[in-house]
Write a structure and sequence with these properties.
The structure is a single chain. It is built from ten helices and two strands, in the order αααβααβααααα. It is mainly alpha-helical and 236 residues long. A two-stranded antiparallel sheet has the order 1-2. The longest helix is centred in the last third of the chain and has 37 residues. It is globular.
């Protein structure tokens, strides 16, 4: 009887360990589960022509706004880190030429943009430049995901098509760079640690890039839920 009890305890401990290991291994990609669930809730709760019109128009308007905000975050972080000769560009199809009337220093030429929707460049980095600062510069725009996820959750809660669109535009900003394994923001971050020269290296790097985006969403999701909890606690 005692032997059977010990065997049962060992099986339970082993299953518990496997469960914990599984949670640990899947955690980096849990954020995409949250993203899919939030997106489904936002879209499935949008009804009627009027709400879909508001949603579509807001999402369309967000394209140049988020592109500019994305590059602006790169430039702001570059300024904080001490980069000199910072330049910011916006593609004419996103209103770059119009914005140039108000901000003459905005670059709209393809020589600078290289076909991109937006671009941030700098002439020189400070003498104490290191990997951490390089990662901070590349990652800066994705801090906007925290605000975006909060707006998305508020849009779902209030059934506001405008807030839903603002939130989903933020998630588009989060995943848009995943297609560029080496040259996108995520690729520049993982390039410090991973070599993407071989097919295996490219696959590992792709997974690492996905992991960054997923963890970013998961953290933003938890922060948004935390804010809602605190708001409810304060009301009590």
């Amino acid at each position: 009887m005692k032997t059977q009890q010990n065997t049962l305890e060992q099986v339970v401990k082993k299953e518990s360990l496997l469960s914990k290991s599984g949670k640990f291994l899947t955690f980096p990609f849990k954020g995409f589960g949250y993203l899919c669930d939030d997106t489904y809730q936002a879209l499935s709760s949008t009804k009627g022509f009027k709400d879909w019109s508001k949603f579509g128009l807001t999402l369309a308007a967000c394209a140049p706004i988020y592109t500019l905000a994305h590059e602006g975050m790169h430039a702001l972080m570059g300024k904080i880190l001490g980069c000199s000769g910072l330049e910011l560009g916006l593609n004419p199809i996103f209103g770059g030429e119009l914005l140039k009337y108000f901000i003459p220093k905005i670059r709209t030429d393809q020589e600078f943009l290289g076909g991109a929707y937006g671009m941030t460049g700098y002439l020189s980095a400070p003498a104490d430049w290191n990997i951490l600062k390089s990662i901070s510069l590349s990652y800066a725009p994705y801090l906007l995901t925290i605000l975006g996820v909060y707006l998305l959750h508020q849009g779902i809660k209030k059934n506001s098509p405008v807030l839903k669109a603002l939130g989903i535009a933020s998630t588009i900003n989060l995943v848009a760079n995943l297609g560029s394994i080496d040259n996108g923001d995520y690729g520049r971050i993982t390039g410090h640690f991973l070599n993407g020269d071989s097919l295996l290296g490219q696959n590992i790097k792709s997974l690492a890039n996905l992991g960054i985006a997923s963890v970013t969403y998961a953290v933003s999701y938890k922060i948004s839920k935390g804010i809602e909890y605190l708001k409810g606690f304060v009301r009590k």
